[in-house]
Specification:
The complex is a heterodimer of chains A (712) and B (125).
Chain A: H1 17-22, H2 28-48, H3 52-64, E1 74-79, H4 81-87, H5 94-106, E2 111-114, H6 126-132, H7 138-146, H8 150-160, E3 163-170, E4 187-191, E5 200-201, E6 203-205, H9 209-214, E7 217-220, E8 233-235, E9 237-240, E10 243-246, H10 248-257, E11 262-267, E12 270-276, E13 279-282, E14 288-290, E15 301-303, H11 304-308, E16 321-326, E17 334-335, E18 343-344, H12 345-358, H13 369-390, H14 392-417, H15 424-479, E19 494-501, E20 508-515, E21 520-528, H16 532-552, H17 557-570, E22 578-586, E23 591-597, E24 603-605, E25 612-613, E26 633-636, E27 642-646, H18 648-651, H19 663-672, H20 679-694, E28 703-710
Parallel strand pairs in A: 1-15, 1-16, 2-3, 2-16, 3-7, 4-11, 5-9
Antiparallel strand pairs in A: 3-6, 8-14, 9-10, 11-12, 12-13, 17-18, 19-28, 20-21, 21-22, 22-23, 23-26, 24-25, 24-27, 27-28
Chain B: E1 2-6, E2 9-13, E3 15-18, H1 23-40, E4 43-47, E5 50-54, H2 56-70, E6 76-79, H3 83-91, E7 99-101, H4 104-108, H5 113-121
Parallel strand pairs in B: 2-4, 3-5, 4-6, 6-7
Antiparallel strand pairs in B: 1-2
Helix pairs in contact in B: 1-2
Classes of the chains: A alpha/beta (712), B alpha/beta (125).
């Protein structure tokens, strides 16, 4: 059924140009573009270094698999809340710090690092005190001025023990064009020059010269956070202006070993590590170490108060590296790390030393980007290639499995090899590919659903239209047929019945019965060759022309037929033809004059006799030969006899296996029922017989039976 | 539909039933031959010995062929009707439409000697 409606419903989000573009080739095109973009982005991100998403995944691994603390080479002497409470507020007079260092030193540690910077002279020194308090008695002031300064006392103490002073590297110059001159621990170069790879600071903060002179080494304390404010890595060697300098952890180890200098190992691509004496400590290419953190461990810490009041085991610091730091309230030296949101700076320094000493840093090399891209292409390729074929279930399962696998592999690398393999890129890219493919599928499904719904609608409309057409045809056909029970002026001598059952695909059977005058009944039965509306219309036209010809004149039935033939032929572009029998029966005599145009011969049913057909010369069906001159025939019904007219819907009724009812069964049936031959009864019995014979087969032609009984 | 040339005569010999399922093909093929023969100035003998049954749609095809032939000098005759087909022809009075012959040999006698000779030479006469 032709309809002008497009197959794709124009409405619906899935038909939007964007949706159509996304769903093109089952989403493969957009998925491939997405994948390429992701790889491009990854290449840029890998260059720039910091990848927030990937980093947070590594941090998760870090929390799940923190460093297991087996040795405690570093002890923190913690100037904590309790110490400050007992000894007074920070800053202390340096004499008190000297006392602490002295007590620590007596416990024989390998080295003592100060997580404290003392850039200015102690204001609590006796001479400074006297200078700042002019109201004091002159003799008291004189005596105070004669006492050694606190800084001098601290310097004396520091000189006695292997002490490393803390310094701070500054990102901005304090004073333009000057760099405070200060001695540095020598850094020797092995292999390539490391300077270009190191982090450079323009200025630094040092201690009072007097104290510095007494120290064994100087370590920079800087704690530098990543862009997301999380502390993950620490430098081993930095540059202060043009000079290379070690950080606190390195200096502490050097002091402990007793080495005189530090060496850098470098290749053209960057730094591979540092050496302190015979100990080689690998680093990242920029001389930094990616720390593998453990949780803050209280076994690392001893309250300074306990050292001062001597309430600890005397051997607790022996052969240890000691870091003295301040953690008491109000001292804001706290950082976020991957394993905890708050970790003291001194704790981080201690963990840095542990990482260095035992080679426990996290390893970023070798760069796994190439391998990851390969794996991604494999997984995403499978998704793009087979997703549309195997469906959304497959895509979801494959994506989940791949992501889980990537997460697991990343974790195992971290846990077993401390290697940072960031699967974030694979996961994100695959997830995006998956989303694109899924959305494309959804779009396609929605469109298919709409198209299907639309087609169903069209089909329904077609069916409705078709059945409407059939109904229209049927209505034309049935509407113009007269009711045989109510023929106006039918004499008592005549009894008539007519029956027409249209086939499913409406045919073009017709009949008509009307009185020409008070005695003469005109009858016609016909069959248009053809089906559907055209046949019905043609049938209606034929019937109307027959009737008008019959009513118009006193001409014979033969002349009527000849006239009707000419007139119908004129209106017949579709080359249809009509077989018909038309006749006039006189109620007074039973005489019939009739004409047969290519139709089955009329039958006469008489009680107690065999049914006979009424032979005639007749002519071809109407419209076959335009100018045919139809002959007139005569017959006569005896009282009690019935004239039966049928169409080929009766004798050509067929079973499913194409067996035909046939003319002899028709005659047999009528003969059988001849004794009880009311027209209605004959028609009903015959119809019943036909239905019984075809045994449910769909009739493919109209069935029409007209019976006229002459009572006499 | 089998077609054999005998001089200016073509003998068409369709087979089988012609009912609502097969009438369209029958009609198409028949009319193709009518058009061809009209153009080639030939005539048609429709040998219906192979047709067991023909419904009104088949008869309509014959009618259309007849109407088409009348627009030209083409003659169509029908031969060798089976008993059932004979009855169908009698009921619908198609002998008014086509000249009918008992046999094809008889039918060809109405055409030229050359056609008769060709038909005889083919061993059919």
């Amino acid at each position: 059924m032709a309809t002008g409606t497009p197959l794709n419903p124009a409405s619906g989000w899935s038909n939007h140009a964007l949706a159509r573009g996304l769903a093109a080739e089952h989403g493969r095109i957009v998925a491939v573009i997405t994948l390429c973009l992701m790889i491009l982005i990854q290449a840029v991100v890998a260059q720039s270094g910091f990848n927030r998403i990937g980093q947070s995944l590594i941090d998760l691994y870090h929390r799940l698999s923190p460093r297991i603390v087996e040795n405690l080479p570093v002890i923190i002497v913690d100037i904590d809340e309790a110490t400050l409470k007992a000894q007074g507020q920070w800053p202390w007079p340096r004499t008190r710090l000297a006392e602490l260092i002295n007590k620590v030193g007596q416990m024989k540690p390998l080295a003592i690092g100060l997580d404290i910077i003392m850039p200015e002279a102690d204001r609590l020194s006796p001479s400074r005190f006297a200078a700042e308090h002019p109201g004091l008695a002159a003799d008291l002031r004189q005596r105070l001025s004669g006492l050694p300064s606190n800084d001098a006392i601290l310097a004396q103490t520091i000189a006695r023990w292997p002490v490393v002073l803390g310094r701070a590297a500054l990102t901005k110059k304090q004073q333009p064009d000057t760099l405070a001159p200060a001695p540095q621990t020598p850094v020797q170069i092995r292999g390539y020059k490391p300077q270009d790879f190191l982090t450079t600071f323009p200025d630094h903060l040092t201690n009072v010269a007097l104290i510095e002179k007494a120290a064994m080494g100087f370590g920079y304390l800087n704690s530098i956070q990543d862009p997301d404010s999380i502390m993950r890595r620490m430098p081993t060697v930095i540059r202060i202006g043009d000079q290379m300098a070690p950080t606190m952890a390195v200096e502490l180890i050097r002091a402990a070993i007793g080495a005189n200098w530090i060496e850098t190992d470098a290749v053209p691509e960057g730094i591979t590590g540092i050496r302190i004496g015979q100990v080689a400590l690998p680093t990242a290419r920029d001389g930094w170490v990616d720390l593998h953190f453990s949780a803050a461990d209280s076994r690392r810490r001893i309250s300074a108060q306990k050292i001062l009041n001597g309430s600890v085991d005397k051997n607790i610091l022996a052969q240890k590296l000691v870091l003295i730091g301040v953690t008491g309230l109000g001292i804001a030296d706290v950082y976020a790390t991957p394993v905890t949101a708050r970790m003291d700076g001194v704790e981080i320094q201690a963990q840095f030393v542990e990482n260095l000493l035992y080679g426990l840093r996290l390893i970023k090399e070798p760069d796994s980007t190439a391998t990851q891209v390969m794996l991604l292409l494999l997984a995403a390729g499978l998704l793009i290639a087979f997703g549309p074929i195997l469906g959304t279930g497959f895509m979801t399962a494959a994506t989940i499995i791949t992501i889980m696998l990537a997460l697991l592999v990343g974790f195992e690398y971290f846990r077993l090899a401390r290697q940072i393999v960031d699967p974030g890129f694979i996961i994100l890219s695959l997830l995006l590919t998956y989303l694109v493919m899924m959305i494309a599928q959804l779009i396609e499904e929605d469109r298919d659903r709409r198209v299907m719904a639309h087609n169903l609608l069209i089909e329904r409309e077609d069916n409705a239209r078709m059945s409407g057409e059939l109904n229209a045809a049927r209505e034309i056909q049935m509407g113009i047929l007269p009711d045989p029970e109510s023929i106006q002026g039918l004499p008592d001598d005549l009894e008539v019945h007519a029956f027409l059952e249209p086939a499913r695909e409406v045919g073009g059977d017709l009949y008509d019965l009307f009185m020409l005058d008070e005695h003469r009944l005109f009858f016609v039965i016909g069959d248009v060759s053809g089906k559907g509306v055209p046949a019905s219309l043609f049938m209606a036209l034929s019937k109307a022309l027959c009737k008008s010809a019959a009513l118009r004149s006193d001409a014979s039935v033969a002349e009527l037929m000849t006239t009707a033939n000419v007139e119908i032929s004129r209106e017949n572009p579709a080359y249809m033809f009509v077989t018909a029998v038309a006749g006039i029966i006189d109620a007074r005599t039973g005489e019939i004059e009739y004409c047969n145009a290519g139709h089955d011969a009329p039958l006469v049913v008489a009680p107690g006799q065999a049914t006979v057909s009424v032979d005639s010369d007749g002519g071809p069906p109407l419209c076959v030969i335009d100018d045919f001159d139809y002959p007139l025939d005569h017959a006569r019904l005896a009282p009690g006899e019935t004239l039966v007219l049928t169409t080929d819907g009766v004798n050509e009724a067929m079973t499913a296996s194409q067996k035909m009812f046939g003319g002899h069964r028709l005659i047999q049936n009528l003969t059988h029922n001849a004794d009880d031959n009311s027209p209605k009864n004959l028609a009903a019995k015959l119809y019943e017989n036909v239905k019984e014979f075809v045994a449910g087969a769909e009739p493919n032609d109209d069935i029409t039976i007209v019976a006229i009984r002459y009572r006499g | 539909m089998d077609a054999q040339d005998y001089s200016e005569v073509i003998i068409l010999a369709p087979t089988g039933r012609v009912d609502h399922t097969s009438a369209e093909v029958f009609q198409t093929e028949l009319l193709e031959h009518v058009t061809k023969c009209a153009a080639a100035d030939k005539h048609i003998i429709l040998d219906l010995s192979g047709i067991d049954y023909m419904s009104s749609v088949g008869l309509r095809a014959l009618m259309i062929a007849s109407k088409e032939s009348k627009k030209t000098d083409l003659t169509i005759v029908v031969s060798a009707l089976q008993p059932d087909m004979k009855e169908i022809f009698e009921i619908s009075r198609f002998h008014f439409v086509f000249k009918t012959f008992e046999t094809t040999a008889e039918a060809i006698k109405g055409f030229s000697d050359a056609a008769v000779a060709a038909y005889a030479a083919a061993g059919e006469g």
